C-alpha cells in the first residue's frame, strides 16, 4: 500500500477493539506499507502504540522517506503492478504475485451471528466489520461465508456481497455463484466490490479508473434527479454503465467525474452501490439503503 499524504502515524494506534467500531478487521491485510514521512512519537488521547511498533507486531514491512507522490504517478500511468520491498541487493526469486486478493482477506469458514428471524447471507470478499454491525443493529441474523462458499443449501432471506480488494474480474467463483442466485428473486445488495461483482454476474463489464475514488466526501447523485448524497469511498474500479444489460438501470452517478456509483434491476430486488453506506469513517447519508434493502427481505 502506498500512501500519498506526507505525514503518517501522528495519531498513533488505539487499542484494537472490533466492538468499539474503530477497526474494520482483526488484523492488517496489506503485505507492505510505503510512506513519505512517519511519526514515531504520536500524540492522541487513545493511542497505545506508534505505527512502526504496530506494523512490526503484525509482521508487516514498511518503507519511509520515499517520494510517494512520484510513485503514485508511476502506478497511475502503468496501471496495476506487482512489487516487492527488498533490503540492499537482495534478489527476489519467488514473489507471491497473484491477482486473487479476495482469497487472502475472506474468512476461511462460515461465521454465524444470531439475532432476529430474518436471515442474511453475507459473502465475505474482504468485508468491513461495519457492514456486519449495521446488519446486526437491525436485528438481523447474519451468516458470513467465504467468497467461494456454496450456500445454496442454507436458509436465507437475502444476500449481501461485501466490499473487497483488487480487480472484480478476478472473483470468478463469486461471480458464478451470484449469477446462479440471480435466476431467482432473492434480494441481493452489493457494496463496492460487491456492486462490481453483481454487474459482472448480470453480464455487464468493469474497468480500472485512472484516478480512483478515495475519501469520505465523494458526492453521488441519484440518476435522473438532483438529489446528492455525500459518501465514503475507496475503490479503483468501476462498472461501465454502457454495458449494463436489459432491465438494468444506473442508480447513482459520481458528481465529480460522471462515473457509475450504483446499479439496480428494474423488476427484481437486485441492487448495487459503489460507495459505502456503512460509512466508518465518513458521513452516514446513505445508511438508509440498509433499511430499504432489508424492508424487501
Report on this structure.
- The protein is of the alpha/beta class and 297 residues long.
- The protein is built from 7 helices and 16 strands.
- Strands 7-9-8-10-11-16-15-14-12-13 form a 10-stranded mixed sheet, sandwiched between helices. Strands 1-4 form a two-stranded parallel sheet.
- The relative contact order is 0.11.
- Strand 15 (260-265) and strand 16 (270-273) form a beta hairpin.
- 20% of the residues lie in helices and 28% in strands.
Shape: globular
Query: In percent, how helical is the residue content?
Result: 10-25%
Strands across the major sheet, in which order?
7-9-8-10-11-16-15-14-12-13
Tally of contiguous helical segments: 7
Helix/strand/pairing class, anyone?
alpha/beta
Q: What proportion of the residues form beta strands (DSSP E)? A: 25-35%
What can be said about this structure in brief?
This protein is α/β, with parallel strands linked by helices. The protein has 7 helices and 16 strands. Helix 4 links the parallel strand 8 and strand 9.
Topology overview:
Elements: E1 7-8, E2 13-14, E3 33-34, E4 37-38, E5 47-49, H1 51-57, E6 62-63, H2 68-78, H3 102-105, E7 111-113, E8 119-124, H4 129-137, E9 141-146, E10 158-161, H5 172-181, E11 188-191, H6 193-202, E12 205-222, E13 228-240, E14 248-254, E15 260-265, E16 270-273, H7 288-295
Parallel strand pairs: 1-4, 3-6, 8-9, 8-10, 10-11, 11-16
Antiparallel strand pairs: 2-5, 7-9, 12-13, 12-14, 14-15, 15-16
Amino acid at each position: 500500500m502506498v500512501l500519498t499524504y506526507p505525514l503518517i502515524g501522528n495519531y498513533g494506534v488505539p487499542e484494537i477493539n472490533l466492538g468499539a467500531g474503530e477497526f474494520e478487521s482483526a488484523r492488517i491485510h496489506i503485505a507492505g506499507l510505503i510512506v513519505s514521512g512517519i511519526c514515531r512519537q504520536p500524540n492522541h488521547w487513545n493511542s497505545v502504540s506508534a505505527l512502526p511498533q504496530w506494523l512490526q507486531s503484525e509482521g508487516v514491512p514498511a518503507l519511509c522517506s520515499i517520494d510517494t507522490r512520484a510513485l503514485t504517478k508511476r502506478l497511475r500511468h502503468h496501471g496495476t503492478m506487482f512489487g516487492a520491498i527488498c533490503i540492499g541487493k537482495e534478489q527476489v526469486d519467488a514473489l507471491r504475485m497473484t491477482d486473487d486478493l479476495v482469497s487472502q482477506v475472506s474468512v476461511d469458514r462460515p461465521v454465524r451471528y444470531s439475532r432476529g428471524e430474518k436471515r442474511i447471507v453475507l459473502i465475505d470478499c474482504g468485508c468491513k466489520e461495519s457492514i456486519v454491525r449495521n446488519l446486526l443493529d437491525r436485528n438481523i441474523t447474519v451468516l458470513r461465508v467465504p467468497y467461494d462458499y456454496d450456500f445454496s443449501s442454507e436458509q436465507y432471506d437475502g444476500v449481501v456481497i461485501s466490499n473487497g480488494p483488487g480487480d472484480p474480474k478476478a472473483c470468478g467463483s463469486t461471480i458464478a455463484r451470484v449469477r446462479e442466485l440471480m435466476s431467482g428473486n432473492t434480494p441481493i445488495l452489493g457494496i463496492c466490490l460487491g456492486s462490481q461483482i453483481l454487474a459482472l454476474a448480470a453480464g455487464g463489464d468493469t474497468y480500472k479508473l485512472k484516478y480512483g475514488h478515495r475519501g469520505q466526501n465523494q458526492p453521488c447523485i441519484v440518476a435522473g434527479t438532483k438529489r446528492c448524497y455525500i459518501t465514503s469511498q475507496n475503490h479503483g474500479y468501476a462498472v461501465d454503465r454502457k454495458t449494463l444489460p436489459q432491465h438494468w438501470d444506473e442508480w447513482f452517478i459520481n458528481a465529480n467525474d460522471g462515473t457509475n456509483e450504483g446499479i439496480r434491476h428494474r423488476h427484481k430486488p437486485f441492487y448495487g452501490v459503489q460507495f459505502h453506506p456503512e460509512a466508518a469513517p465518513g458521513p452516514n447519508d446513505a445508511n438508509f439503503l440498509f433499511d430499504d434493502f432489508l424492508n424487501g427481505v
